[in-house]
Design goal:
The structure holds two protein chains of two kinds. Chain A contains 19 helices and two strands. Chain A is mainly α. Chain A has a two-stranded antiparallel ribbon with strand order 1-2. The longest helix of chain A is centred in the N-terminal third of the chain and has 43 residues. Chain B is an alpha+beta fold. The chains are: A mainly alpha, B alpha+beta. Chains A and B meet through helix 15 and helix 16 of A and strand 6 of B. Chain A: It comes from Paenirhodobacter ferrireducens. Chain A: InterPro entries: MetI-like (IPR000515), MetI-like_sf (IPR035906).
Chain lengths: 417, 367
């Protein structure tokens, strides 16, 4: 027996122990997997796949390339800088004719329109008579639409001829390509995304800070009260969760608008002149106030669950060792609440970064966030690829903050409740 | 502010009362004077008010009435951090986010001590509890006993004159607890500090203290050195709480200065030492320590009182035999006899005569 242990440990009837163990655990493992399988499938279908799809769309757009095979062929044989000659116009004519037949001119034109505005109508109007073009195509087409000799249109078509493109990421960062294909910033008046992203970041940080500032004392109160009273207060904290988000946001509109409750009260008290009512809605202030209120429970809950586990004897020990109440708080209590502060702050920050309804309703022009822009591109301009690129950037920023948090505090220390 | 009188103790509780809800008193009229360098233990069951007293002394609770003085100064309204009292908590309360050295350095830092001096003191305090190697550990990486030593070192590192300990050994296993008792006692003697120690473990109280204050129902039931507490309990609560005691209920038949006669419920007359007997005819509980009972005639002390007994059960406990007997109609009368060479082994059902010296039978108030 002692010899056997030095080589391979076996069970009583001589099977290798490892194999026997694996066999005996296999059933249990299979059963455990079956238990999580539905959730796993659900997450895969409803979460991983859509996000993958979204990320894919941000650098893949084939609406032009699949509808203009002849042009794609021409661009691949003629390198950048080639003269736009008769053969190019022949390919264009062939594609436009096909587009007319398939009714896809608008679709293809939309893709080029992202880069050079006004081109969608160029495609649709030219395609209308495309089946009647006769060689020489260059003259025939230019006769119908003079704009086709604009090099920008051809440059845009060249870049769209490959379904894989980083143009949408350029656009999301207020960048574009000039005539020579060099990456340059867009014109002064058109740069919006970077500013908006910056504002989204700032607003989210402000809201996170406000939530922590307001939530910390409440969580502390909750954790130090006797159970029965704490439960009552906890219901008050959770109450907003049971009310529709829309109702809560609308309530803030009623309160904060210039003819609203708060302004009426201030006027009545004589603190504000009737013709100088404070503008608290449809600007940044409105967004900050309403979102802080809505996201506050997300800081209180993790903070509370952390504070609940800190015995009062720590602060007492610090006090008995000679620390003032402020020092005891700063050096002993606060560091121990860090996991809660981190979890609550990160949660609120991530939620705020992607918040949509509240800024849309109360934000006005100044209080809009990047999610509102994404929604606009999804619903109004139908530039899904740009929306996807913006969303991907948002995701990247959130992941970067997550990473920073992990480096500073450690993700394993996070406590959500 | 009252000025110190010459014969006043280092710590004085002067008519202190404490109520949390305004309806019941947790501490009822506490008067206690603790001398400098004394090791005083507050002993009592949970809810007896002993921890509340400690918290008032540390400054975490305020007295509802009365005065607490430290070194002659009223400290009722002095915040905890200005009292300069070291404290050891039941769960150690070591700061989990600091290393051992940082924990010990904390009280010195808040006192604005220079770094070099701090380091020297921390090293000295760690060596004092034989934990020098652990300076860079975190509390979570240490065993309960090690954490306990660190907590002790932290309470002593800033050289307080008074150290409070709130059931510091409660979470340790028996062997470690006994070992730590000796260490704490040795530290107390070496440093000459005053210690107020709270526990519900009577063994701990007896082995460590100069004096023990037995708490019950918000009052000190008896304040005495351990031997006096054990051998001359003043009332039945103390007699019951400290050690094991046999109690025989009866009525006082006659009363003199040094002795009294008690008629037991079964009619026997026994003589006992009156402790808090006020008049003849009063109900009483006569208490006798199990180890003061003899059953061999040759070992009986002179003048011993003899009574009939029937053995019900014999438990072998290694160093002693614990014999449960029926005496005067009571079924749980216990006798402890040492397991010496040639000791007679008793058997259940055996009938015999047992006896004790009347001095060891103390007539107390009925509970």
């Amino acid at each position: 027996m002692t010899d056997a242990t030095s080589q391979m440990i076996t069970t009583a009837d001589g099977k290798p122990l490892k194999a026997a163990l694996a066999a005996s655990l296999a059933v249990r493992r299979r059963r455990a997997f079956l238990l999580v399988a539905p959730l796993f499938l659900f997450i895969l279908i409803s979460f991983i796949v859509p996000i993958g799809q979204m990320l894919f769309q941000s650098f893949y757009n084939d609406t032009f390339s699949k509808n203009a095979p002849a042009l794609v062929e021409w661009f691949s044989t003629h390198p950048e800088g080639s003269e736009i000659d008769e053969s190019a116009y022949a390919a264009l004519a062939a594609d436009l004719a096909q587009m007319k037949k398939d009714r896809t001119a608008g679709e293809a034109g939309t893709r080029i329109n992202y880069d050079v505005s006004g081109t969608r109508s160029l495609f649709t109007s030219t395609a209308r008579g495309a089946d009647k073009f006769k060689p020489p195509f260059k003259e025939a087409i230019l006769q119908v639409e003079k704009k086709w000799d604009n090099p920008n249109v051809w440059r845009a078509m060249r870049s769209a001829s490959s379904p894989f493109t980083l143009d949408f990421y350029l656009a999301a960062n207020d960048l574009t390509r000039d005539e020579s294909g060099k990456i340059v910033p867009v014109a002064e008046g058109q740069a919006i995304y970077k500013k908006l992203m910056g504002r989204t970041l700032m607003l989210s940080l402000e809201i996170t800070a406000l939530c922590l500032l307001l939530g910390f004392p409440i969580a502390f109160l909750l954790s130090s009260l006797p159970m029965r009273k704490a439960m009552l207060l906890m219901i008050l904290v959770l109450l907003p969760f049971w009310t529709s988000l829309l109702v809560r946001t609308t309530a803030w509109m009623v309160l904060l608008q210039s003819q609203g409750v708060v302004n009426d009260l201030l006027v009545w008290l004589g603190l504000v002149r009737d013709d100088h009512r404070i503008q608290m809605m449809y600007n940044e202030t409105g967004t900050i106030v309403a979102m802080t209120h809505i996201l506050l429970p997300f800081t209180i809950l993790p903070l509370y669950s952390v504070m609940k586990t800190i015995p009062p004897s720590y602060v007492r020990a610090a006090r008995s060792l000679g620390a003032t109440s402020w020092t005891a708080f700063r050096r002993v209590y606060l560091p121990q609440t860090l996991p809660g502060i981190g979890a609550g702050g990160l949660l609120v920050f991530i939620l705020a970064m992607g918040y949509y309804i509240t800024p849309a309703l109360v934000g006005g022009a100044d209080g809009q966030m990047i999610s509102n822009m994404i929604a606009m591109h999804m619903q109004k301009t139908l530039n899904w690829s740009l929306a996807a690129a913006l969303a991907a950037e948002l995701l990247a920023i959130v992941l970067i903050f997550f990473w920073i948090y992990d480096k500073l505090v450690g993700i394993d220390k996070m406590k959500l409740g | 502010m009252t000025t110190a009188t010459t014969d006043e103790g280092f710590v004085v509780f002067d008519h202190v009362q404490k109520s949390y809800d305004g309806e019941t008193l947790v501490v009822k009229d506490l008067n206690l004077s603790i001398g400098k360098g004394e090791f005083l233990t507050m002993l009592g069951p949970s809810g007896s008010g002993k921890t509340t007293c400690l918290m008032m002394l540390a400054g975490f609770e305020t007295a509802t009435h009365g005065e607490i003085r430290l070194g002659g100064t009223n400290i009722n309204h002095l915040p905890p951090h200005k009292r300069g009292i070291g404290m050891v908590f039941q769960n150690y309360a070591l700061f989990p986010h600091m290393t051992v050295a940082e924990n010990l350095s904390f009280p010195l830092e808040v006192r604005g001590m220079a770094k070099s001096e701090r380091e020297a003191k921390v090293t000295r305090a760690l060596d004092m509890v034989q934990m020098g190697k652990f300076a860079n550990r975190r509390p979570a990486q240490m065993s309960g006993g090690q954490q306990q030593r660190i907590a002790l070192a932290r309470a002593l590192v800033f050289d307080p004159e008074l150290v409070l300990m709130d059931e510091p050994l409660g979470a340790l296993d028996k062997q470690l607890r006994e070992h730590m008792q000796f260490e704490i006692k040795a530290l107390h003697e070496r440093l000459g500090i005053t210690v107020v120690y709270v526990t519900h473990d009577q063994g701990e109280a007896l082995t460590m203290s100069d004096r023990v204050a037995v708490f019950n129902d918000g009052r000190i039931q008896q304040l005495a050195p351990p031997d006096e507490l054990y051998e001359r309990p003043k009332n039945s609560f103390v007699a019951q709480f400290i050690g094991e005691n046999n109690k025989l209920p009866g009525t006082v038949e006659s009363l003199e200065d040094e002795t009294c006669t008690v008629r037991l419920q079964t009619g026997e007359l026994i003589s006992a030492t009156p402790v808090n007997i006020r008049h003849v005819g009063q109900d009483t509980l006569v208490s006798i320590r199990p180890e003061r009972i003899e059953f061999k005639p040759e070992m009986m002390p002179p003048g011993a009182h003899m009574i009939d007994a029937e053995v019900l059960e014999v438990i072998y406990m290694g160093d002693i035999f614990r014999t449960r007997m029926r005496v005067a109609g009571i079924d749980d009368f216990v006798m402890k006899s040492r397991n010496t060479l040639g000791q007679t082994r008793l058997h259940p059902g055996e009938k015999l005569k047992i006896g004790w010296h009347p001095q060891d039978a103390r007539a107390l108030d009925p509970m």
